[in-house]
Write a structure and sequence with these properties.
This protein has 309 residues and is α+β, with helices and mostly antiparallel strands. Helices cover 16% and strands 30% of the residues. Strands 8, 9, 11, 12, 13, 14, 15 and 17 form an eight-stranded antiparallel sheet that branches. A five-stranded mixed sheet has the order 1-3-2-4-5. α2 packs parallel to α4. The radius of gyration is 20 Å and the shape is globular. The N and C termini lie far apart (49 Å). One of its GO terms (cellular component) is cytoplasm.
């Protein structure tokens, strides 16, 4: 167990921690299970966050050992992260998404200067909202997640498994759902179509495949502003960008895009050609897109092959 993370062993212990915290101090609870693959995959990210945000209290609760606490918080999927202030829940994250976990901790942590070490009077840590990747690196972030800008109409994935569809991890105003994931069906290829409510400016993409790295995407092509696209279209048309993802990239790190080519995006299409180790199927645990909302997309329907370069 990381030194800055406390494992809760009883309801009494948890209640004591909550009652002792200042009302404005953030408590992050990681509800996990020994058998949960995504829980193990995101554990290093939580440890990195606990080392960075030392003015935030981090605890872990094993749902099998502390069933009463899991029931109190109505935990149904693992991992689930609860964000508590003043004894009240202020936010929640279901699923193993490093970018979203990083963003929520930074959002609710508050400035480190608000919490002083009574012994030395020094600040306990930094409350800056830099991005922490699964590999431990950090960089400043000046863009926000665009998941809330996705519209359900037109959201689709070709060659998705019926039991593990795109809707398990991406949709309007919600992201990954615990142990759910997207997986291809008969071969490694996937073609994901993501429409937006408004035109957006895309700056970066994040793909997390930490549970099964060998199945993580490798070579991808990005297309923009098609009303629809199939595999034949993707082979025939020119992409806005081609990317070869490394094993580090698919740990939830932000991969910067050629920003000038993604200035007014109303739909994004992601062709995944293969995976890291030529596995039979490709698996993705979470996807996030970063940028900003641009001008309105109220321009009527786009022609099927009206591709913007």
């Amino acid at each position: 167990m990381a030194p800055n993370i406390t494992e809760i062993t009883s309801t009494f212990q948890y209640d004591g921690i909550v009652s002792a915290l200042p009302a404005n101090q953030l408590l992050v609870i990681d509800f996990h299970a020994v058998w949960c693959g995504p829980c193990h995959a995101i554990a290093p990210v939580l440890e990195q966050l606990s080392n960075k945000f030392t003015h935030v209290k981090f605890v872990k609760i094993d749902v099998d050992k502390q069933a009463q606490l899991a029931q109190r918080f109505k935990v149904r999927a693992m991992p689930t992260f609860k964000f508590i202030k003043g004894g009240k829940e202020v936010d929640e994250l279901k699923g193993a998404s490093p970018p979203q976990l990083n963003a929520l901790v930074a959002k609710h942590a508050g400035p480190a200067s608000a919490f002083q070490n009574s012994g030395s009077g020094q600040k306990l840590g930094s409350g800056s909202a830099s991005t922490i990747s699964a590999s431990g690196s950090s960089s400043a972030s000046d863009s926000s997640s665009l998941l809330s800008q996705i519209t359900a109409k037109g959201l689709s994935c070709l060659n998705e498994s019926a039991s593990h569809p795109l809707s398990s991890i991406v949709g309007p105003a919600h992201g990954p759902k615990g142990t759910s994931y997207l997986e291809s069906d008969v071969d490694p290829e996937l073609l994901i179509s993501i429409p937006f409510n408004d035109a957006v400016k895309l700056k970066a993409i994040s793909i997390f495949s930490g549970v099964s790295p060998s199945q993580a995407p490798k070579n991808i092509k990005l297309f923009i502003n098609y009303t629809s696209m199939d595999f034949a279209d993707a082979e025939r048309e020119s992409p806005a960008q081609e990317i070869e993802l490394s094993k580090e990239d698919v740990k939830g790190n932000k991969v910067e895009l050629r920003f000038v080519r993604f200035q007014s995006v109303r739909s994004l299409h992601i062709l995944i050609k293969d995976n890291q180790e030529d596995e039979e199927t490709t698996r993705i645990d979470s996807i996030d897109l970063y940028g900003s909302v641009g001008q309105t997309s109220d321009k009527g329907p786009l022609p099927k092959h009206d591709h913007e370069h």
